[in-house]
Amino acid sequence: MAAKSLKIGIIYGGISEQKAGMDHYLHQVLPAMKRLAPSHRYILIDHRRQQTPFKERFEQVILDLPRPPARVSRWNLQIVPRILPQFDLVFSPGLYGPLRIPKGVASVMVVHDLTRYLFPNFFAFNPMQKILDLMAYPSMLRRYNHLLAVSKATREDLISRFKVPGEKITVAYHGAEEAFQLVSPQVAKESLGPSYPVNKPFILFLGTLEPRKNILTLLKAFAGIMDQIPHDLVLVGQQGWKWGPIFKEMERPDLKERVHWVGYVSDQARVFFYNAADCLVYPSWYEGFGMPLLEAMQCGCPVITSRVSSMPEVVGEAGLLIDPHQVEDLQGAMLRLAREPELREKLRKAGLEQAQKFSWDTSAKITLEVFEKVIERQDRKEG
Questions:
Q1: Domain-wise residue ranges, the chain
Q2: Per residue in 187-226, is it b (16+ CB within 10 Å) or e — as a string?
Q3: What percent of the chain has pLDDT over 70?
Q4: Does 7-175+359-382 carry CATH code 3.30.565.10?
Q5: What does the pLDDT look like over 164-211, one tens digit per residue?
């Protein structure tokens, strides 16, 4: 990395301690960046005074929230910009960041996906969110020096939806934690057995239960083939927005005994679920990346996923791709993997090989290279 030590302000106020999405991204990529380039100062900018194991690993600046309403939004737009002149670079890894970046301060923003724009029906917007999405976010895309997209599909979405110049966007894929690795299926099932319904062969879905994940199509597809296979369907993940219709469908008499929802589980339990399942089915309508696909492949679990957005990028030739609109397409893929152990073994090996193309260290290295290029351009401009 470059010899110059940078003081980097990281917008942490919108990041939670959950292991999902953009929160999980920062909690993985930032320690990797610190390990690869320890001479830089990585300073979390937050509005929460309570400490967490992650926060305690970094320097911090705490800025109190303004009075209601829209406290976090106003914090980003009004409070944070006041302290940014002290930094060489501001890094916005979440959905929103400061809109005003002082002159002389470099800026990099991560774009995880454009679901809110391409599929607005998947979200419940309050008035402030509508303002941010219609005005502030597009302005951020224009004003920040450089954007990091988590997939080529997201990069293309930025170019087509917001006319962002391609040279302003660098792709930095996610990685998966080393904990996601091969375990004997028998050991995995025995480890899950006391707490979870895995006494039969099963097909796995793992993700938040929300409309974007296309779970209603999955349930309909499974209902049409379950009499032809011995497998149950196990859904792992927390309740999301508009989860009600999903649970109503699961309560159908013909599905109730064969479909099991186990809620949010630990990382270790997820490893066991991937290793115990005959396949992961992930028929999402849209993903910026699709982390469960990579985790599953790293555990040797064959995958079925949608032929849209980033998902073909992630699985390459190591999964069965389906049209998320076509129930019959999904049924055919599930029947193949349920009935053909040779195909499962072929995809298992291909998935392990495909997963090696992704790592958090690679993502961190690309991010640091972008930081250096942006700083170099900034220095030339000032000179």
A1: 7-175+359-382, 185-355
A2: ebbebbeeebebeeebbbbbbbbbbbbbbebbbebbbebb
A3: 96
A4: no
A5: 999 999 999 999 999 999 999 999 999 998 889 888 999 999 999 999
